[in-house]
Amino acid sequence: MKLLDELVGMLGRQYVLTGEDAQSYLVDWRGRYSGQAIAVARPGSVQEVAELIKWCVANKVPVVPQGGNTGLCGGATPDDSGTALVLSLGRLTQVRSIDTDNDTMVVEAGCILQTVQQAARDADRLFPLSLAAEGSCTIGGNLATNAGGTQVLRYGNTRELVLGVEVVTAEGEIMHGLRGLRKDNTGYDLRDLFIGSEGTLGIITAATIKLFPLPVAQCTALVGLRSINDAVSLLSNARKGFGPALTGFELIAGACLHGVVECYPQQRIPFEGESAQLPWYALLELSDSESAEHARERFETVVGDAIEAGLVVDAVIAENISQSKALWHLRESIPLAEKTFGKSIKHDVSIPVSRMAEFVETTNAALQTYFPGIQHVIFGHLGDGNLHYNIARGSQYSEEQLLGMQDAIYELVHESVYQFDGSISAEHGVGQLKRDALPRYKDPVEMKLMRRIKQALDPHGIMNPGKVLASRK
Amino acid sequence: MKLLDELVGMLGRQYVLTGEDAQSYLVDWRGRYSGQAIAVARPGSVQEVAELIKWCVANKVPVVPQGGNTGLCGGATPDDSGTALVLSLGRLTQVRSIDTDNDTMVVEAGCILQTVQQAARDADRLFPLSLAAEGSCTIGGNLATNAGGTQVLRYGNTRELVLGVEVVTAEGEIMHGLRGLRKDNTGYDLRDLFIGSEGTLGIITAATIKLFPLPVAQCTALVGLRSINDAVSLLSNARKGFGPALTGFELIAGACLHGVVECYPQQRIPFEGESAQLPWYALLELSDSESAEHARERFETVVGDAIEAGLVVDAVIAENISQSKALWHLRESIPLAEKTFGKSIKHDVSIPVSRMAEFVETTNAALQTYFPGIQHVIFGHLGDGNLHYNIARGSQYSEEQLLGMQDAIYELVHESVYQFDGSISAEHGVGQLKRDALPRYKDPVEMKLMRRIKQALDPHGIMNPGKVLASRK
């Protein structure tokens, strides 16, 4: 109780949660991970975060930083020892400044991503990071996990959208690194070391992020394809023909679209006959700095050429914003439709684009050998080499059977990813979920250097122990 | 002699240079830094680099890695103790692979930048890194210093152009990190830690770099402006109007252009009357994925609007490639013209774009107060907030007087940069030149973490000691 009293002394009673009040912070949003903690601390300033960390060092209390608690790998959930402090950044919600001439904005870690997007839009600017959880995830969590999303093809991952960070170190010091500079070669890149480290090296409390001009128009097309190889060739042509105006290139298996319309009959696949029965489709998005007409014209030229070259079987180009939205809606409904068909086994993998076709063919075949009749639910950001390579039970297996097969399927897919020079975590991070798999697929020298860095920056081992790397004994 | 014999035993006599043969490796290309070494080792493979480092650890021999020896801060020159080994990467010149579907290329550290650009072009792709030394600098040196250059506005610094690195660590192990993935969230960002660390943490021996489609057309415009503030507003409008097709935005003081035509009478400023006497000019470059006509049309629209809004006084849009080249030639001739007017004091600084006008005004005024009559030679990459803020002696001072004032001018400018939240090294790095200034302008917590990382990754302190950070006693 001494520890709890001290926490209350530091923050005030209302910002130290225990019991029922703490519950939602101790379980991840999908209910897959749960743990215990001394309490949940909700500091109201960077200074309070720093004080808390100093207190944790002095009392040997492990810290689990938490943003919107929307992670997919258990990175923000404490273990069940009950010895840790969950440190929620939820009260650090200031947009500290917007500089439209410098195209930068300084935001605190607890800002909801959607709030950040809106603040940019209010200043006639775009902050392009966009992902399914944007209504509840925080920019701090996005930074901690180097989140990806749907705009990576053009704008990069979260890492590429950040110019500077403010960090409370594992010893409770404040690193003032909120520079708004596009060029700064004064020493080691500490910014990128903290980004993606999942709270295991320090706590990012604020960041200077990049803003972009809002596109004048966006236009979407859906094209039907005979193979992934054709999709890869089309991607190459589209990058050439559209340049950086190409902001999306999503690959979708035909079966996914059929699943969507089966589940949501009010949606429809905008093709007829043979064109509606193709094995693969691609959704392309253009962001134009001229006009909607110009975007459509560009689509007609580049997609027209691809049809003539035999790469594309059929194509629909949205004629207005609502048609564009309907096409995106098909894509976005896939995970929801997937859910209504029961539990599935999900993989967030990346593969060099050039090896994608071979990876899918080889892995599908291996899965059918060991788990005949299993169903493939394949879609993803082809432009980034990022595939959501998911497996559904189909009519062959029960939910229980699928769960029983889960570990073997994970292993088969991860081994295949490894063979094809891919990554077992493209955009979700490591957390607890993939921690023990990591040493198997990562270069041993990289693992060694990661442990050295952990030791150097978190000498007391209090920062989110057991995440990314196994705890030191 | 024992050490030398062992080196010869490892590499063969022809690849261990001493005496006259070593001389050009012991002085930087501008002759500002020189040192001594046991020898210059020229390993022919990554394995040999690793062996050499292990040997250096065993014999406590400091290592100075060297690429094309074109650095500007003395980062690749040994000290004068004669105890170090210069390790030249010049024989690691393989383009190991090109993957046009994945838009990546694997190159070894010793490849000349121009060779890398050409290899990309031969595969119908663009590798956009471009800088003055491209005919002799190596990609390894570009990586070690996170080089900038003229295309940063659109494509980013070297850091942003790299997906993976292969590194020989400070203990002679090989880190296999040549991934060709655009998304990979499996642990700490070691890649970006080595990039920009100037050979003080390990040796980058190869990299997987990003390729882009070649633009279909490029077009250039020169516009005359009344103030830096107008230039900043124009930059904002141009980013909005052109989107990512805007690949260059260079700010040039009127005095620089007049210096160029005075020095090279065959060149001319393409304006008449008042328009030729403006205080500032900007050079804009568009890279178009449609056609040269389209690029010109876009220029006419956006620059036309800026003239109507009173932001731009006058403008010339190139009508063909040779006119574009002539405009760029004016810009590129500034440093050469500068040289013919005698020694100058150069600063490679960055400032938030929004504070650029105020920085120049304040700093110019302070310099005139302390050094009346001194001349300002100001130009740079406004789009990146990167200014070459140079000082010439004019007719007021002799070369000797200027040199005598040098340290005071450095300090005045750096202090001003600091006041305006800028960086004292935008793209050239730290090396020896700015090492001792760094702790004055960098956050003390950042300095502390940098030293921790140095200690963790280079525990024997053999990697390029005395560069970036002071050597440990």
TrEMBL record, chains A, B:
The family database entries (Pfam families) matched by this protein are listed as:
FAD-oxidase_C, FAD_binding_4
What InterPro entries does UniProt report for this protein, alphabetically? FAD-bd_oxidored_4_C, FAD-bd_PCMH, FAD-bd_PCMH-like_sf, FAD-bd_PCMH_sub1, FAD-bd_PCMH_sub2, FAD-linked_Oxase-like_C, FAD-oxidored/transferase_4, Oxid_FAD_bind_N
* Cofactor dependency: FAD
Q: Give the GO molecular function terms.
A: catalytic activity; FAD binding
Give the superkingdom in one word: Bacteria
Q: Ranges for the FAD-binding PCMH-type domain?
A: 33-214
Q: Which GO terms describe its biological process?
A: respiratory electron transport chain
Q: Which UniProt keywords apply?
A: FAD, Flavoprotein
Family statement drawn from the similarity comment of this UniProt entry: Belongs to the FAD-binding oxidoreductase/transferase type 4 family.
State the protein's name. FAD/FMN-containing dehydrogenase
